[in-house]
Amino acid sequence: MQQVFLPGDHARGQWMRFDAARILKRYFFCERSLIISQAGWLAAIPSFDGKTILPTFFWQDTMTANALRERVFELRYPSRLMEIGEDEPLITVFDQARNAPSAEAFVLSLARLFKPALLAAYREYEQLADELADGPILRALRTAITEKMEQVAALTTLATVMLRAAPERQAEAEAWVAALGQRLVEVGGVSVAPPVAGVNGEIPGSRPFVLPDKAARDERFHLCRYYWPDVVDPHFPYGEGIRLQLRSAVSHFNEVWAVETGGAILHAFADDLGWEFIYDAARWTYDESRHARMGYERLKSWGYQPQEIPLGSYIYDSARGQDPVIRLGMLHYFETKNIGKKTKRAEAFASYHDKVSQHDMDFDWADETIHAAYGHRWLDALRALHPDRVPDIDAIRQRCDELVAHEVKAATQQDCQEIAQIANAMIAKAERITHRTE
User: Fold this and answer.
1) Position 217 in a domain
2) Which pLDDT value is given to residue 335?
3) pTM for the structure as a whole
4) Do 113 and 15 fall into the same domain?
5) Whole-number pLDDT of residue 436
6) For residue 311, which phi and psi values (nearest 5 degrees)?
7) For labelling alongside 326, which of 15, 185, 229, 373 has CA 20 to 30 A away?
8) Which CATH number characterizes residue 50's domain?
9) 3-state SS track over 88-157
């Protein structure tokens, strides 16, 4: 007599845990690749909006990727092995994003190809997955779906603005993204199904990624070498009252260099230091982008136009030609150098009844205590990995101090006159504003 069983042919049973883990691992490596590419490109993107919005996006991507990674470990317990494996053709295409021929082409590829591909993949997974078995990752994917929709919209706008400002790069960007899209199709896209072997070789029109020694900057602002006179003139006071309010806002705005540096070190050390470093560096860069926006928003609220606001380059410039560890050291150096002044300045702003400056400085202090720990942790980790190449933290700090001092010493009379003129014009405008409100 044939044995009969209760029916079990149900849609919920289509994936076992290893099936789900294999798909989620694929998504993780896609996200990881884009995080590294977005970080590396920050210094080459001129747009201030681009420099400060991409860190938000790749921090969100990092949160998604971390949830994917942890879920893979749960499903594969006790194994904690994460290898690209069968997904190599797909991840190779994702890695090609960083070899864009221009910043405009890179942002266009995010807006048109990669972010939409992940959005569609997460929607597909959400529709097919079993809520009872795979609920822990569905919450993260639903959040990611919302974020990816917002990212696609914002990146589409950013790409349009950037290409409008550089129309001579439109045809090249369009052609490269089209070729990249075709390659993505050839490997089967991002799907619950494994990718297929695609065509090897570079995408036509690609240019190998190189971190620029001189960062691209938004020409709407007053581009200069030093962003306030006291950097190069010891007789120009840091100031109190409205001078302190302005100096602090300009300093916050000029943390653009820290955004670029955070992206540079994430890209440089992602493979050496692994996922935990990527996780910390993404947060670090995102924090710095918020600080830059803090300064800009305060200056705008006081009536300053972009062309009135100085955007300096000397700190980023001071690490040119150096081992990437110096950029990591530079970021750590400035975090620990200035952290002790934050609470006193917050108190001063409170006494001026400047709640927004107090608020920004207060939150900045909390971020920088975290960043100081990041710097120690990862400089020590790099020294442990490369003791012959990486000096100890004290030696790195000394080297950073020397490099910055050299850059400051190189200031010309024209540099000094230029930034003094900008600062004095800002101060005079602030005095006019305060007189009108008395």
Assistant:
1) no
2) 81
3) 0.95
4) yes
5) 66
6) -125, 105
7) 229
8) 1.20.1260
9) HHHHHHHHHHHHCCCHHHHHHHHHHHHHHHHHHHHHHHHHHCCHHHHHHHHHHHHHHHHHHHHHHHHHHH
